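User: Write out your own:

AI:
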Amino acid sequence: MKSVHFLNGQLVNEDDLLISPRDLGYSRGYAVFEFMMTSKGRPFMLEKHIDRLYRSCQEISLNLPWPKELITEWVVQTLKANESVEGEKVMRVTISGGPSMTLSTTKIPTIVIMVDQRIPRPSEDYANGVHVLLSEFQRYKPQAKTNNYIEAIRQFNSIPNDIDEVIYHSEGMVREGTMSNVFAAIDGSLVTPKTGILEGITRDIIINKLQLSVRAEACDFSVQELLGASELFITATGMDIMPVTKLNDVPVGDGSVGPFTKEVMRKFRSFFESDLW
């Protein structure tokens, strides 16, 4: 069964999911988005995602004419229209500047809500960990989740196929992955970068919701400290908690998924499947 999507107030099928090539999201890259998923059919942390969507718009001065409650209603409406699609779903909400022949935005931006079946990552990735590379780069407006993935696309079209993520660093400090936040076990502490990043929903849950044996803290750390980490994992809505066992072609710690990482994976999964959110 094909998915049903939402475009500017209307439910449409895949063939009618069309925007103007003059839309500033297409012609100038002026757009933000949120990516969500369902747990037991419910949109996971929907309020948090909508809040961040609005913050992203504010960061790039993209004016929204709709209240948060209405966009939330549209997401739920679109999800319900896809009940015939099997399994858990993923949703992407994109808001762009609207059609314009200049650099001026329109009064009513373009909004698209897409729903698709969730395709989970291979189980062996979670059991064995993945490989990542370091790259020097700082995203423009890192607090905004924009559609500007030029550097990420450039990187992934030039790196080996066995690399799952690229971790950015700038001025000697670790920042974030192309699509993820970074956590590392350094000198017995579990830390995640604090500045120059997009603050992820999964990241926030680990810091503020999970009762861990070692408290996860947001504090900046250097590339050299990361290279000496005993454990490393990345987090994102689409992957949950993903262990990293090789960094720059060198094993992280002893090259296996470590105890901190396993604890976070277990407790996040319990939270995700619970009614606590």
Remarks:
- The chain has eight helices and 15 strands.
